[in-house]
Every structure is written in structure tokens, then in C-alpha cells.
Write a structure and sequence with these properties.
The chain has 192 residues and is of the alpha+beta class. The chain has a single domain, classed as Chalcone isomerase, CATH 3.50.70.10. Helices cover 40% and strands 31% of the residues.
């Protein structure tokens, strides 16, 4: 009987630990996520995007397994998620332009030309979101065989954007050679 009680206590303790979330500047970031019907992903790292002394969003990077280098993350196959929990209201045009600018800074002219239609789809989808309000959760998911899915507060927006190369370009906004913010790149890669 003692063994059964001890086993149950251990199982409950594991369950409580798994349900915990990371706290990033007061924003709760879940420790796990599921993209489509794929396997459960783990939080690789999380941090805050700041601009001109204002916190804009708390970001989380979810992968099938933890990675500490940008090259390893970019090479990793399978589903992935970047979550952006808005910490202030941001207009759709501003959000779309920020994502586009981040991709342009980390892509060659040839890569940009190859992704032109995908970038147009991203811009159109982000503009359709309207204003991203404080507390909104925007998810940028990569689903193998489907592409990039964009969600707002759990609802898919627009249609999937094809191509693993496009999602890698999207990840480079935060993990590329010219990331949107150096300390956010480090945080997403699990550095404290």
C-alpha cells in the first residue's frame, strides 16, 4: 500500500511540474506545446522583445528536443512553434512590416526572390489579423507536409504558407546572423 501511495504521489508531482509555465516579465509561457497532430514540443527558451524601452512581446520557441545553437535549430526537421504573447497593442501593418524586415535582414537577394509569393502571403495574413492587442497570443507553427500556420488566440488565420525554407527564414528573424534582438536570440536558445 505504501508503494502505491508513493507511486501516486510521484505521478502527481510529475503532473504538477509538467503543467508549470515559464514566467517571462510577468507573462506565462507554457512549457510544452502541440502543433497539429504532431508530438508534444518542449519550450527551448523564452524572452522579451523590447523596442525603444517598451516591451513588445514575450516570445517562446518550441522544438521536439532542446537545442542550444541557432544552426542546430535551423537544421532540425519536424514541427516547431514560435509563440508571441503581446505585451502592448501593435497595429497589423507594424507587425507585418517587422516580420518582413527581419526576414529581409537575414536572407540573400536570391532567397528573397524565391520567397516573394510566400512573403506576400505572410504580409496579407498578418494584415488580416488587424490589431494585435495586449495579451493576444500569436503562434507561428511549422507543420511538416503543410507549411507555416499562423494562429491568433488559438484560431488559425489565413491559409498555410508552403515551404520548410520559408519557416527557416521566419526563424532567422530571431535566430539569424542579424536577429531582431541579440539577448532575445540567446534567451530563445536557452541561455539564462
Amino acid at each position: 500500500m505504501k508503494r502505491i501511495i508513493a507511486t501516486l504521489a510521484f505521478t502527481v508531482a510529475l503532473g504538477i511540474g509538467a503543467a508549470q509555465a515559464a514566467d517571462v516579465s510577468g507573462v506565462k509561457i507554457a512549457d510544452t506545446a502541440r502543433v497539429g497532430a504532431g508530438p508534444e514540443l518542449v519550450l527551448n527558451g523564452a524572452g522579451v522583445r523590447s523596442r525603444m524601452m517598451f516591451d513588445v512581446y514575450a516570445a517562446g520557441l518550441y522544438l521536439a528536443e532542446k537545442k542550444s545553437s541557432a544552426a542546430d535549430v535551423l537544421a532540425l526537421a519536424g514541427p516547431k512553434r514560435v509563440s508571441l504573447t503581446m505585451m502592448r497593442d501593435v497595429g497589423a501593418d507594424q507587425l507585418a512590416e517587422s516580420l518582413s524586415e527581419g526576414i529581409k535582414l537575414n536572407s540573400s537577394a536570391a532567397e528573397l526572390e524565391k520567397m516573394k509569393s510566400q512573403l506576400d502571403e505572410l504580409m496579407s495574413t498578418m494584415k488580416a489579423v488587424g490589431q494585435a492587442k495586449k495579451g493576444d497570443l500569436i503562434t507561428l507553427d511549422f507543420v511538416p507536409e503543410v507549411g507555416t500556420r499562423i494562429g491568433v488566440n488559438g484560431k488559425e488565420v489565413g491559409k498555410p504558407i508552403a515551404g520548410a525554407d520559408f519557416y527557416r527564414a521566419l526563424l532567422k528573424i530571431w535566430l539569424g546572423d542579424k536577429p531582431v534582438q541579440d539577448n532575445l536570440k540567446k534567451a530563445l536558445l536557452g541561455a539564462s
